[in-house]
Amino acid sequence: MLSGGQVAATVAAIAAEQDADGALPWFRGGQLDPWDSVEAAMALDVGGEHERAAAAYRWLAGRQRPDGSWAAEYRAGVETAPEVESNHAGYLAVGLWHSWLCTGDEELVTGLWPVVRRGLDLVTRMQLPGGAVGWALRPDGTPDDTALLTGNASLFQALRCGVALAALAGEPQPDWELAADDLGTALRTRPEAFADRSRYSMDWYYPVLGGALTGPAATERLAADWDRFVVPGLGARCVADRPWVTGAETCELALALAAVGQRDAAVEQVAAMQHLRADDGSYWTGFVYPDDARWPVERTTWTAAAVVLAADALAGATPACGLFTSPGALPAAGTERSHSAVDWLAGGAGTVPS
Q1: What percent of the chain has pLDDT above 90?
Q2: Rounded Cα–Cα distance for residues 241 and 199 (Å)
Q3: Which of 182, 253, 312, 327 has its C-alpha lying 20 to 30 A from 2's C-alpha?
Q4: What is the CA radius of gyration of the chain?
Q5: Peptide bond preceding 296: is omega within 30 degrees of 0, i.e. cis?
Q6: Residues 6 or more apart from 90 whose CB is under 8 A from it?
Q7: Which residue segments constitute the domains of the chain, with CATH numbers given?
Q8: CA–CA separation, 315 and 254 (whole Å)
């Protein structure tokens, strides 16, 4: 399994891809999307790179549009895919709550709270009758009536983190609470509300990872499609009908397994995907196993970030370690990094326990 020193090297590899202005793309010179940038910033916070994480969040804040949205893609700070996607609008709430848990940085929360509020207000405007949230805005500003299960499961978590931030800011948002309740009901009971993308592993595990499914229902869901998606010794497929395992999906599956108490299985999945690790601690995105080939030929910050977040959840090293694995409750924030995190990243706490 991963040692603290290995996790620190992966955090350093993510940091090495960050631009001087704070932008955190997939890799230096590559595309940036808001969701994956937030995930990479969370990994920086786990590794103690708080100034870098805050710079990534402030970069996003500076590019939020007046309606609360972001472009779907940027390159060199320029919008290259202007479409509005609901999961992009919501995910900063998860990142900011994660940062608060790690650092207790009141200045950052205060500064970015209006940005989170605008983003989640847009999400609630994109909610459809029945509770699901449209995946995008049409050119006329109305929500598309197609809802994507993975994105909605992520938005369920984002709304709940937003409610926690609202309480912290002293500005309750009852509309968000209602939106989260309706969305959670849709995720649990209305599969017909979402486009059929069941061949993708994210649609399998994300309702558990986002916290909409808990207890026996979550355990049963993960068991039901295990053989469709998990390749023993290699990790999880991205798509059920393709011989391609991907690191981020494998580590997100590990987080979902940890959320249902299957710690040994979670550790096994993180260990299985280590064939994607490069010498500098970065991670290749995926592996086509019949061809013995890494594909695509890129090492993405968000893949590395998923590894770091899974390792933190399993090691219990930072105050934010339970964000993805304790979906029934949002933990209270700490005011500083725990001593265990310091020791872990210095190598003094050994490996992620099994």
Answers
A1: 91
A2: 7
A3: 327
A4: 19
A5: yes
A6: 119, 120, 123, 154, 155, 158, 159, 162
A7: 4-345 (1.50.10.20)
A8: 13
